[in-house]
Structure to design on (608 residues):
């Protein structure tokens, strides 16, 4: 699977299922692209589509999705809980398989330039693809949202787009295009209802409070009907090659034991890179000289 | 990767590298087939080629390999330590990805019939593809080897081939064609030089002496220059969906601890089905509701 790329566009429409289906359909009809997932949120009035393929096909599919969204979504009518600047709010490219983040950075920039021209759409590069350092953070790009950007884009040089006109698209607003590494959403459930402990462990392990690199974490209390409440350390691993699943679980296990409890079980939310899971197996077994190439189907997929 | 099949033919030539290269080349030139490995053994005067692809391409490649071997190998001249009945001695088909063993059984039978006709070659079906119960075991099919089979094939009804003439191929002899599940070669190294303990643990876990189903095991002593000798439990897992890696390692760890020692590390020899490795990760993490479909690249490969 050389050059395999994932793309996860977010669309500012979560209340009209037929519109979301139209957009997903426009993406999925491109040959060589697999739609892995799509979800729709009424409160946020927002949808997320996950698809993958090689660079060329992913760009074709993303372009088709943008085109359809600009026809079907009018930002002047949009309200919702989630911050947004456009009908297609954000388009990250993510390296899978043997692809590298650098390829996704290049791809995001080329794609951004293309759609800016084609659709007369202001494009902001964010994440690893950012051209201005303060645009690395999506929150900075999106500050004040659609409504404030509409006022500032032409007058404030700090808000000039990287590509496209310094004027919002009539219905579609603007878009943030970027590159990031695959994100693993991973939860560790403790054998206790002690929410304070889950919060304390989350604070200890997360990067933002001095913990492990590339780890985001928060403590929550799971309350499912008919089940005893359970404290959970909910994590996002944003660069598993820096800090992997096994390392995080080992540390949470240690901290839980120090506090007199145990890890009960874990949950993987959605998809994860196969390499991140194989690393757990290799770590557990103390495999010497293990390579992901020893996983048969993966090796074959890579050679095709 | 729908319908992905592995094929592991064994050829009775291990001393002329140029002949082995010719055969590997004939297999590898078929589009859609990936040669994963090939090895050559001078003592056994025998080579093993591992390749994979979809059923149609694997059959084309296996047929090309048989054709080339029948041209280049003369069983009347062959001597070697390993039991054999023909120039292409044995051809197993193995299900990978989402393929099932039943597909490989069908494939082995169709392929066996085809090459019997095409090359006038006696074909014996073995393993899961066997039509006669006592031919399940390859050793039974191969008893007395090439030399005895040459005498008995026409006269002993018990040795009549499943397909093809009751007369050996002039230079190529006969071939055993079969189906089996993927085999995992997996070693568990103990933190001791106590060979007797490794043998005792192997005897406890292996199916043949009343241990775990689909597990073969033996105890050996590793002696590498410059390293202290290390006792090893060397295993073959012949059906990881019945007894997987995690189960075997857990049991060996328990038995080692009972004897006052520990598992030092493990070794995976060659390739293993990705599912067997993901199962170890899911087991370690106590993942609830885990599916191999959550491994991104694997899911994508499956959908293509």
């Amino acid at each position: 699977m050389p050059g395999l790329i994932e793309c996860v566009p977010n669309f500012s429409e979560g209340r009209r299922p037929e519109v979301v289906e139209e957009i997903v359909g426009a993406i999925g009809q491109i040959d060589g692209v697999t739609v892995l997932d799509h979800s729709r949120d009424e409160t946020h009035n927002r949808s997320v589509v996950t698809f993958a393929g090689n660079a060329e096909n992913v760009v074709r599919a993303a372009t088709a999705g943008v085109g359809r969204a600009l026809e079907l979504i009018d930002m002047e009518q949009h309200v919702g809980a989630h911050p947004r600047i456009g009908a297609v709010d954000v388009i990250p490219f993510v390296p899978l398989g043997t692809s590298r983040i650098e390829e996704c950075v290049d791809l995001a920039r080329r794609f951004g330039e293309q759609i800016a021209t084609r659709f007369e759409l202001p494009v902001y590069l964010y994440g690893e693809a950012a051209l201005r350092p303060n645009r690395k953070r999506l929150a900075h790009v999106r500050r004040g949202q659609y409504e404030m950007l509409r006022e500032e884009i032409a007058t404030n040089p700090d808000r000039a787009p990287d590509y496209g006109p310094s004027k919002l698209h009539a219905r579609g607003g603007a878009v943030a295009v970027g590159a990031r590494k695959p994100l693993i959403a991973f939860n560790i459930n403790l054998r206790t209802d002690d929410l304070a402990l889950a919060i304390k462990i989350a604070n200890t392990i997360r990067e933002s409070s001095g913990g492990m690199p590339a780890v985001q974490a928060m403590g929550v209390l799971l309350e499912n009907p008919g089940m005893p409440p359970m404290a959970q350390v909910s994590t996002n691993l944003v660069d598993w090659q820096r800090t992997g699943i096994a390392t995080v679980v080992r540390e949470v296990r240690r901290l839980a034991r120090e506090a007199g409890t145990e890890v009960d079980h874990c949950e993987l939310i959605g998809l994860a890179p196969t390499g991140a899971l194989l690393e757990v197996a290799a770590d557990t077994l103390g495999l010497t000289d293990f390579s992901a190439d020893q996983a048969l189907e993966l090796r074959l997929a890579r050679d095709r």
